[in-house]
Task: inverse folding
């Protein structure tokens, strides 16, 4: 089933929020991207893309459950805390995220 523009915007919001959370937790622990990736058993490039909210350039991240569990373990947090997206409901975040033009997302996915 193909994603609609609205679903794609939501995927991008969640991806950026998760990427920001990964970066914040990593910084709090004083770890490098390479250290987190190695400890989680994933490629450094993959982890770098995750922190940018991507899996491939222009594609929202889509990590496996196994990867999310490994990252939560490495970053000393629970999986529910890692995936807590309550801030996405905050008006300030929603207003910023709504600036993402869904037509740009469709154009990227068609390229």
Result:
């Amino acid at each position: 089933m193909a994603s609609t523009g609205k679903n794609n915007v939501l995927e991008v919001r969640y991806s950026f929020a998760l990427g920001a959370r990964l970066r914040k937790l990593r910084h709090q622990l004083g770890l490098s991207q390479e250290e987190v990736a190695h400890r989680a058993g994933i490629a450094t490039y993959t982890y770098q893309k995750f922190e940018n909210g991507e899996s491939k350039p222009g594609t929202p991240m889509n990590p496996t459950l196994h990867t999310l569990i490994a990252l939560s373990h490495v970053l000393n947090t629970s999986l529910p805390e890692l995936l807590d997206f309550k801030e996405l409901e905050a008006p300030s975040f929603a207003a910023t995220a709504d600036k993402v033009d869904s037509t740009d997302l469709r154009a990227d996915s068609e390229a």
Observations:
- The radius of gyration is 14 Å.
